[in-house]
Amino acid sequence: MTSRIRIPAAALALALFAFPLPPGRAAAADVPLRVAATLSDLGCVALAVGGADVEVTVLCPGSMDPHYLPAKPSLSRKLGQADALLFNGLELEIGWLPPLLEKARNPRVRAGAPGLIDCSAALDSVLDVPSGAIDRGLGDIHPQGNPHYTVDPRRMIAVVELVGRRFGELDPPRAAAYRDRAEAYAAQLRERMPVWRERTAALRARHVLLNHQHWNYLCDWLGLDVIGEIEHRPGIAASPRHVQDMVEKSRALGDVVVVAASWDHLDVVREVAGRAGASLAVLPGHSGAEPGTDDYLAFLDVVTLRLAEAAAAPGKE
Question: What is the pLDDT of residues 26-44, one digit of tens each?
């Protein structure tokens, strides 16, 4: 059994407030804005909005589950050089970002500094906010709600717009360029969204069993019928009893597609799909997780294509 280390939110605040605020960043036409992004999806946004005016470093590769990133000293050194940090928020990075920031000792990206950009601040709603008492027995519950919003292009448009504004505030001489690129990238996303929804239309006639709540925002946007998760308690391996329950529920409903990320424990996922007679879609968890997904739009192209293929595939008895 693998558990996730949870650092209290107070510890994040302590690490971030340890150093004084910096003076304003001195902008120069030939000096790029140095941007660190915790997730590859946010790195794609930074590149799209920043263009040639930014240098972007991604801390967590798209192929790695962001819950488990090791807090390596090399990442602190990267943070120490950053003018801006884009982070997912909603405590997704709570297990590794606070110690990295503490070691980085970079006042440009500490709490209250203009360079620290919580991308979840762009959201107007958050899914799966828990109610009632929260304890470790429930698994890796995120008290502020489901943090995996970057798989939803509607919410990422809001993030793009936020980043365009914040980059302009950090680098006023190039504010108009950041704004224009943000508007252009948001327009590209809006243009592709009907294509992605139409591509996955057949999936709306079926049921979806997720391995983890990573895909809840995607399913919410696509209007899919989610019947549950194989990982009954987040971050804790599913019990044999729960696995059997999901198999029986899927068989009773029929027309089920099981959806998992490539970093998941796929042996269990494949077992459930096989026993349930369901088709299976294994998706890249974030942009850059595999060849052909280095851009966020290309990532969603691959995701929706695989969902469409799984929806077209008959379940196996």
Answer: 445 678 999 999 999 999 9
